Amino acid sequence: MSKTAAKQAISTSLFASKAPLEWAITANNTLYTAQIPINQQGQVVEGGIEAQTRQTLDNLVHTLNCAGTDTNSVLQVMIYVTDRTYLATVNAIYAEYFQAPFPNRAAIVVAGLAREEMLVELVVYATVSDSE
Question: What's the number of CA atoms in the CB half-sphere (13 Å) around residue 59?
């Protein structure tokens, strides 16, 4: 039986949260990340669901690049939105960032997210090369 790889944080230039979290962690050739619509100053972007979805996906692409990979390595995405009507916009923008075969995904409508002004959040799992 092989030794389980220890988790490693991925260094990104995303805003350093005061919460006890990492923007991305890898272990056993899997990247675990959650992305929100914040800019470099840690502020939730304005402009509604379209601007927030683009910022969230841009943050994801940046994080994947920092891990040495891209959207083709994404296996699963869980999309959280605060209003069902946002899903059409999220889907249209999402299709600009991913190509077939698309990741497996789920879309969940929630009453709210960690920051009141957030309309969307993504939880993503991707494959990465073993850095050892």
Answer: 29
